Amino acid sequence: MNELRNTFQGIMREVFDDDDIVVSDSTTAEDVLGWDSLMHINLIIAIENHYSIKFATAEIAGLQEDGQNVGTFLQLVANKLK
């Protein structure tokens, strides 16, 4: 999971154009400057392109619910890669 988190962090740095972003499983959109709904979609598209996976609309909507964080997102990606 660490390799996945490191890759995710690198993609986030590219999407948000901020080399200082550091993520943990507990990181949320509130912790990252500029992480709004548009950037959320940009991040999802970047992850889909990087891993050649697709998220269902329900999965994307679920990531925006209360209590969701980077750890939840990483678990979803890991499940898609299995």
What can you tell me about this protein's structure?
This protein is an all-alpha fold and 82 residues long. It has one domain (2-81): Non-ribosomal Peptide Synthetase Peptidyl Carrier Protein, Chain A, CATH 1.10.1200. 59% of the residues lie in helices and 0% in strands. The protein is built from four helices and no strands. α1 crosses α2 (37-51). It is globular. The two termini are 13 Å apart. The mean pLDDT is 94.
CATH topology grouping: Non-ribosomal Peptide Synthetase Peptidyl Carrier Protein, Chain A
Elements, N to C (H/E): HHHH
Gap from first CA to last CA: 13 Å
Mean pLDDT: 94
Note the main sheet.
none
What is the secondary structure topology, with strand pairs?
Layout lengths: L1 H15 L20 H15 L5 H6 L7 H12 L1
Helix pairs in contact: 1-2
Key words describing this protein structure:
single chain; mainly alpha; Non-ribosomal Peptide Synthetase Peptidyl Carrier Protein, Chain A; 4 helices
Summarize the structure.
This protein is mainly α and 82 residues long. It is 59% helix and 0% strand. Helix 1 crosses helix 2.
